[in-house]
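Subject: Iron-enterobactin transporter ATP-binding protein structure
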Amino acid sequence: MIRLYTDDLNVGYGDHLIVKDLTVEIPDKKITTIIGSNGCGKSTLLKAITRIISPQSGAVVLDGKHISKENTKKLAKKMAILPQNPESASGLTVGELVSYGRFPYQKGFGRLTKKDFEVIDWALEVTGTIDFKFRSVDALSGGQRQRVWIAMALAQETEMILLDEPTTYLDMAHQLEVLELLQKLNEEQERTIVMVLHDLNQAARFADYIIALKDGEIIKAGACEEVINHHVLKKVFQIDAEIGWDPRTNKPMCITYNLIKGEEKNEQTISDRIPAGIRAYS
């Protein structure tokens, strides 16, 4: 079942088009990661999907409706977004910031209910930030702040969570904690997760579906083994990658790579010209 998709989406800033005629389906109740080099349109696509920016043409459709026409609170009950650079939370405590995730459920004067406080504490617990509840956000480290922002997105209790580079500022252990948390939410609560990641091996390890972008266009979208391979990575990143298999997940992983330079960068090998549907994995 596909609840969320884009149809011939064009997004840009002024005369500069970032995302071009992009049509993509987001698998429901799965984890999707978006990969690509800097400036390829990953964040722009995420912002368009969540209505942070409006497309120049085309549409984003959720549950059969264009999100541009959806009521804001109704949309906020269906999808939460954690942007790459969240707005400043200066002067707020951690608990106050996370409470903003309850906005779609508030009525009247916006007072928090018993259910709201329970959800806030749950979000703080699962992100390991409950001990910071009464501390100022300004006093936290970059990694701690990132986990608090994720807690706010979780407190929104949406069916879909979209995250732009959620592991930014985190060390290796905390990166793994965040990604395992998102995986747990997907597996146990069937939440649809869409996230932009730079680490190819993290993308392969945690994703059910990967979208590889270059210059605002999809080079390949599909299962991990269809995207994390020599041919796709060459086109997307201009690298010559050696691909192996992760012994713990049995998923592909990038073992090492070299930059492709000079004329070789623009060469198209015979194997590159073979249709993707019949190309052998390498």
